[in-house]
């Protein structure tokens, strides 16, 4: 994710929803242990604060220092800045080492990662027995019949400025690679769809739009999508500017575990057994004694006698 200014980070924090606590409860029920969780791309800690209710220690990392400064503080959450130049080995050591993490969460974040690097690290640090990785994204917001059509026009206007990374989010992670085995909560190409309830003020909503990645990308190219005209339209349809609305973000989740890898020696053994069985059957066919010429003549006589009797 691109670095946000101090002001943008503050607006982002105000508008970004808290994820339902029930999510963490359901996911945690499927991990074998509850000692360590890693919230990667933590932002300002929305997922980390939920994880700490179910795990003894939470490591929360992010590339964005401005957001980390506003992260929700907790005695069992350790926040760390992870700049782009950190090596895989350094990240592995920072979060706890090989085979150490019970749950990895990437909330509204994984599409910004170098997926090859991230998945390599995830497979190294995730517990091979009972460890899980959960990713989710929200890509739409339902506010009201008056506001929603204006929001849709804004979303459509971002199309020329979207990057392939952004499209992973707009596609609800349906096109996102996910090399982990499903545990019944979504799978590669088939994320499960969920609602995130949130209370949002007009000020928070406008702040969210200005810190929204597609709008920021357009601004970098000299196009102000969240302009005064658009803001006026939102203000007119919102109603009382002090009104806090009950809104819903549409979210999409996939949860998985490390796929079982059969040992090469085990596969060779199985293939060898199959080959042995094949050779044995062939051998049995070859070892069956063939009748002699005299035995053949006797058999023919018996058959002829039976035919004449009929």
UniProtKB/TrEMBL annotation:
In this protein, which residues make up the domain named Methyltransferase type?
39-133
Looking up Pfam families in the UniProt record yields:
Methyltransf_11
Molecular function GO labels: S-adenosylmethionine-dependent methyltransferase activity
Output the superkingdom of the source species.
Eukaryota
Q: What is this protein called?
A: Methyltransferase type 11 domain-containing protein
Task: Give the residue ranges for region: Disordered.
Answer: 267-310
InterPro entries cross-referenced by the UniProt entry? Methyltransf_11, SAM-dependent_MTases_sf
């Amino acid at each position: 994710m691109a670095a946000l200014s101090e002001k943008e980070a503050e607006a982002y924090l105000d508008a970004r929803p808290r994820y339902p606590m029930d999510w963490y409860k359901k996911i945690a029920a499927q991990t074998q242990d509850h000692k360590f969780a890693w919230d990667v791309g933590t932002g300002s800690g929305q997922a980390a604060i939920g994880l700490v209710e179910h795990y003894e220690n939470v490591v929360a990392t992010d590339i964005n220092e401005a957001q980390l400064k506003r992260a929700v503080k907790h005695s069992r959450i350790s926040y760390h800045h992870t700049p782009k130049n950190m090596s895989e080995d350094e990240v592995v050591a920072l979060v706890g080492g090989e085979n150490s993490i019970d749950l990895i969460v990437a909330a509204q974040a994984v599409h910004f990662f170098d997926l090859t690097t991230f998945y390599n690290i995830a497979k190294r640090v995730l517990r091979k027995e009972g460890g899980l990785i959960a990713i989710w994204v929200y890509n739409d917001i339902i506010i009201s019949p008056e506001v929603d059509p204006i929001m849709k026009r804004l979303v459509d206007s971002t199309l020329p400025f979207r990057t392939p990374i952004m499209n992973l989010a707009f596609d609800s992670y349906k096109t996102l690679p996910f090399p982990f085995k499903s545990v019944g909560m979504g799978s590669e190409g088939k994320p499960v769809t969920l609602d995130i309830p949130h209370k949002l003020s007009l000020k928070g909503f406008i702040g969210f739009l200005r810190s929204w990645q597609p709008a920021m990308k357009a601004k970098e190219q000299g196009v102000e999508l969240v302009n005064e005209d658009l803001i006026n339209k939102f203000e007119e349809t919102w109603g009382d500017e002090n009104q806090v609305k009950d809104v819903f973000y549409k979210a999409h989740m996939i949860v998985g575990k490390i796929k079982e890898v059969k040992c090469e020696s085990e596969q060779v053994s199985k293939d060898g057994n199959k080959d042995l069985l094949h050779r044995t059957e062939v051998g049995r066919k070859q070892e069956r004694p063939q009748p002699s010429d005299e035995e053949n003549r006797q058999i023919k006589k018996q058959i002829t006698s039976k035919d004449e009797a009929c």
